[in-house]
Structures are given as structure tokens and as C-alpha cells.
Specification:
Chain lengths: 168, 148
């Protein structure tokens, strides 16, 4: 189901509390009617739980004492192999630039991926602009559903995070 | 030269025959029908208007309200670029303008003065629900559904 594909890319962010409220609401809306995605979310939660348990297990104090004697001694400076050129200083700025470029590339691609996922679900709504009002757009998850565009009131309309449904 | 005229005539007839159905189709789909339903959802206990049963089915999962009543239903037939609309009881007007017709749907510009501007590409007989604005104790809801 295409609805599941669209929601699946948001589940990680939903689980980690990183989504905006409209996306969060959209995920909640889908989860209410999709067992497969609820199961996927549950497995994400379970995995997170395991990781937390693993991270919180502090090593025993005597562990270091057991490991330290087995480690090789540090190589003295004078014993280092001569003739192998050290990394030239002029390479450092290039390295920094490459890292910066890689970072930029990653941010850009992750952003465009996010936009692509939004575009893919926006089949009906091509553009929407509401002056000084917030708008919720709920694209149809299935052929039977309608696309819903909801103009939020300036005050008095409950935010979606406090409940599964919203006062009109 | 006179011997070439039958060939020219045949080519002309062929061209006209080939393009005529497309031309007729283009003329026939130059306009779209738009079914508009204006409803009012209220938190006050009351009936769900049978005429709004489909809207209720779409909205009841998302929004809390106790009653839903259809205020007005209208069917417009609009040519491309022609503006039609419906007046809201709040005094505002919703204007709709079909911009183009494509295989994936009709592109419609929707404008509520000072409130909303949207471009929607709506497939044939697909309903779009717009929660427009507060009215009395509830909310005005406009649904639009093209047919072409």
C-alpha cells in the first residue's frame, strides 16, 4: 500500500519525537488503521529499548585491569619507521573542505529525500497558502478516503498531539 | 498539376479524419462539473444529516463534533479559466477556477478571500474536504467533487 510506504519513512522520526505536529498527526492517523505499521513502530520501540539497556550496562571495574596488560605498549617516537612520509600539512585544508562538502551533500540529500516523501503523498494538493493561519493537509491514504484541508483557527483549536482527534 | 489534386484532397481528408475525434474530445472536455456541498459541523448534540453521510464518514475519525448539517448543495459547470463559487454564511466567498484538465485530474485554483489560496489536482469524482472557518459554535466545511 502506498500509504504505508509514505508513512514508513516517517516512523523513525515519529518514534524519536522529531516530527512536526502535522506529520505526527498524519502518522497517528495512519497508525490508527494500519496494523502492519503499528507492528513496525512496536519493533522500533523494542529495538530502542534493547539499545538503551545495552548502553546502560556499565562495564565491571575490574575489566580494565584484565584488558590493559594484553594491549601492546605504545611505540616510542624514535622507533617509528623512517621514510614513510607523514601527511603533508597542505592536505589538511583539503580534508576539511572535503568533510564540509560531504556534510553539505548529506544534509542536502536528506532534505531532498524528505521533500520527495512529502511530494509523493501530496497527490491532490499542489500548493496551499493560508494567510496568518495554519493549515493541515491530510492526503487520502486510500481510494475511499478524501483529501482533507483543514484551516486551523487562530485560537481555540486543540493541537493534534494531545488527542487522536481534534475538536472541530 | 491537376493530377496531384486528388492526392492533396485525400491527404486533407485523412488529416481532418485523424484529428477530428481529438478535436471533438477537446471541445467536449472543455468544461468540468463541480459538486459543492457546504456543511456545518457543531459540537452541540444533534443529528448527522443523511446528505452529509459521506462527509461524516471521512471526518468522524479525525475530528470531534456532535452534529453535522448540510447548509447548501450546488453543482457548477465551469469552463477552463472560468470562475465560479459559493457564498459562505460568514459573508466570505469561496471562488473556484478550473485551470487545466489532465489525465491525472482537473487542476483547480481555490481561493477564499483573505484566507486561503490553493491549487488542487483532483481526479474525477474524487472528493476534497476543506475545513473553512469557524461559524457560530462550529466549523464550516466545504466539499468539492469534480465530474467530467
Amino acid at each position: 500500500m502506498s500509504g504505508c510506504r509514505n508513512i514508513s519513512v516517517l516512523l523513525d522520526g515519529f518514534h524519536d519525537g522529531e516530527l512536526g505536529r502535522f506529520e505526527r498527526w498524519r502518522v497517528q492517523r495512519h497508525l490508527a488503521g494500519c496494523r502492519a505499521c503499528r507492528d513496525e513502530l512496536a519493533s522500533l520501540a523494542q529495538l530502542g529499548g534493547w539499545l538503551r539497556v545495552a548502553a546502560s550496562d556499565a562495564p565491571a571495574p575490574e575489566l580494565w585491569d584484565a584488558i590493559a596488560p594484553r594491549l601492546p605498549l605504545p611505540v616510542p617516537e624514535r622507533l617509528r619507521v623512517r621514510g614513510v612520509p607523514s601527511r603533508p600539512r597542505w592536505l589538511q585544508p583539503i580534508g576539511v573542505a572535503a568533510a564540509a562538502f560531504a556534510g553539505t551533500f548529506l544534509v542536502t540529500t536528506s532534505d531532498s529525500g524528505h521533500l520527495a516523501s512529502l511530494r509523493s503523498v501530496s497527490g491532490v494538493v499542489r500548493s496551499v497558502y493560508a494567510k496568518e493561519r495554519q493549515v493541515m493537509v491530510l492526503e487520502a491514504d486510500s481510494a475511499e478516503d478524501s483529501t482533507i484541508i483543514w484551516l486551523m483557527d487562530e485560537v481555540g483549536e486543540q493541537s493534534p498531539e494531545v488527542s487522536e482527534s481534534v475538536d472541530i | 498539376m491537376s493530377t496531384s489534386r486528388p492526392w492533396l484532397l485525400a491527404i486533407a481528408v485523412g488529416v481532418v479524419t485523424a484529428f477530428a475525434p481529438g478535436f471533438v474530445f477537446a471541445q467536449g472536455t472543455d468544461s468540468v462539473g463541480l459538486s459543492l456541498t457546504l456543511s456545518h459541523a457543531s459540537p452541540k448534540p444533534g443529528p448527522i444529516d443523511p446528505a452529509a453521510a459521506e462527509i461524516h464518514r471521512q471526518l468522524c475519525r479525525e475530528f470531534r463534533y456532535e452534529s453535522l448539517q448540510v447548509l447548501e448543495q450546488r453543482h457548477l459547470i465551469l469552463r477552463m479559466q472560468e470562475i465560479g463559487g459559493i457564498d459562505l454564511p460568514t459573508g466570505k466567498r469561496v471562488e473556484l477556477r478550473p485551470l487545466s484538465l489532465t489525465p491525472s485530474g482537473v487542476l483547480i485554483a481555490v481561493e477564499i478571500e483573505g484566507t486561503l489560496e490553493a491549487d488542487l489536482r483532483v481526479p474525477n469524482r474524487k472528493q476534497v474536504v476543506i475545513g473553512v472557518e469557524r461559524y457560530q459554535d462550529g466549523k464550516l466545511i466545504l466539499t468539492l467533487e469534480p465530474d467530467y
